[in-house]
Design brief:
about 140 residues; 4 helices; elongated; alpha+beta; four-stranded antiparallel sheet; about 35% strand; three-stranded antiparallel sheet
């Protein structure tokens, strides 16, 4: 065992420590971007087949807003905004996964009804980065 310990040099330890510290860099960047996005006005966008059907403004005003999605194939979903969260409360699909997913309220969270090709996504009004900022790849 001592034979292997003697093979380790100071540079090897430095490289390993830099790699460990560098592995946490994406976590810090994404956490920072998420915190900056949560300080802006949020909206929940309802899309069907990639087409925007309705937009909820997520403000904690204590009010409830309802949107009923219905298409020509008989697919029906009821989407409800309560304060700053959105949920799909009813759907006539067979699996009911979208109903069981619950509330969404943070940037990037989604609720998806695959049989109806319906997507509810929380987005920020402002872009996450400006052209002068350094991106993750730089």
């Amino acid at each position: 065992m001592m034979k292997y310990v003697k093979m380790i040099k100071k540079g090897d330890i430095l490289i390993v420590l830099l790699l460990i510290i560098g592995s946490f860099l994406p976590l810090g960047l994404f956490t920072y971007q998420q915190a900056m996005a949560n300080q802006t006005d949020l909206k929940a966008v309802v899309k069907a087949d990639g087409e925007i059907m309705y937009v909820f403004n997520l403000v904690d005003d204590g009010q409830t807003e309802t949107y009923r999605y219905h298409d020509e194939d008989g697919h029906e979903n009821i989407i409800v905004r309560t304060g700053d969260s959105v949920t799909i409360t009813e759907a006539n699909c067979s699996d009911q996964v979208c109903v069981r997913m619950g509330d969404i309220r943070k940037v990037g969270e989604t609720n998806l009804c695959l049989p109806h090709k319906l997507l509810v996504e929380v987005q920020s009004d402002q872009p996450l980065e400006t052209p002068n900022e350094i991106d993750v790849i730089s």
